[in-house]
Amino acid sequence: MYGKKVDHERYLNLLQEKKELEGNRPHDVDGMRRWKHTMGKILEELELYR
C-alpha cells in the first residue's frame, strides 16, 4: 500500500513540473533544447502511469 502513495505523489509532482515547464518556455536555441529534453523525460515517465 505504501508504494501506491509514493507513486501518486510522484505523479502529482510530474504534473506540476509539466505545468511549470509549459508556462516557462524559453526562446533561445540552447534553452529550447534543454526544455525539450526535460519535457520529453516528464512525458515519458507520465506514460508509465497510464
Q: Mind explaining what this structure looks like?
A:
The chain is an all-alpha fold and 50 residues long. The chain has one domain. It is built from two helices and no strands. It has helices at 2-23, 29-47. α1 packs antiparallel against α2 (29-47). The mean pLDDT is 92.
Largest sheet: number of strands, sense, barrel closure:
none
Number of strands: 0
Q: Which segments are poorly predicted (pLDDT under 50) over 5 or more consecutive residues?
A: none
Run of helices and strands: HH
Question: Which oligomerization state do the chains in this entry correspond to?
Answer: single chain
- Gyration radius over CA: 13 Å
Record keyword descriptors for this entry:
single chain, mainly alpha, 2 helices
